[in-house]
């Protein structure tokens, strides 16, 4: 009987874990966006890179847009090789976190 109860409790937990929605966490994103900074300029960072190579600005973009773009790279619907590699290395939680982070940025890095 004890075993059965334990199993039921376990099953209950798994269910909750699966049902829980992935919510982006801006704090957790900070360590994850380090590899994005080199290419995607962030406010306070001098973005000289876009002059050499067209890297889109993602700061201030809506979280939904960033998430769907990253998923499109994961699925191969978007073809850019370096972004495909990067997106492939991100978990669902990573995507939610970086999307939340970039969405709360303001577009102050726009070149005049
Ligand atoms: C090696 C350089 C490089 C790195 C590192 C990089 N990106 Fe990109 N990213 C690009 C380029 C170039 C594009 C445009 C690709 C294209 O035309 O599809 C792009 C496109 C994107 C787009 C789509 C933007 C749009 O307007 O459609 C998103 C979102 C994005 N990157 C997020 C990220 C995130 C998040 C990270 C870090 C986890 C990251 N990138 C790291 C170079 C990079």
UniProtKB/TrEMBL annotation:
UniProtKB keywords: Electron transport, Heme, Iron, Metal-binding, Signal, Transport
Gene3D superfamilies: Cytochrome c-like domain
A GO term, aspect molecular function: electron transfer activity
Cited InterPro entries: Cyt_c-like_dom, Cyt_c-like_dom_sf, Cytochrome_c_Oxidase_Subunit
Annotated Cytochrome c domain residues: 24-106
Record has Cell wall biogenesis/degradation as a keyword: no
Lineage top rank: taxon: Bacteria
Signal peptide bounds: 1-19
Protein name per UniProt: Cytochrome c
Species whose genome carries this gene: Duganella guangzhouensis
Lineage, uppermost ranks: Bacteria, Pseudomonadati, Pseudomonadota, Betaproteobacteria, Burkholderiales
């Amino acid at each position: 009987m004890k075993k059965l109860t334990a199993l039921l409790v376990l099953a209950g937990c798994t269910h909750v874990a699966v049902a829980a929605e992935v919510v982006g966490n801006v704090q957790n994103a900070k360590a994850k966006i380090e590899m994005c900074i080199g290419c995607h300029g962030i406010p306070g960072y001098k973005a000289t890179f876009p002059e050499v190579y067209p890297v889109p600005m993602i700061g201030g973009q809506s979280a939904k847009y960033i998430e769907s773009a990253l998923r499109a790279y994961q699925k191969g619907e978007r073809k850019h090789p370096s972004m495909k590699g990067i997106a492939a290395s991100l978990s669902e939680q990573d995507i939610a976190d970086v999307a939340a982070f970039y969405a709360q940025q303001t577009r102050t890095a726009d070149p005049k």
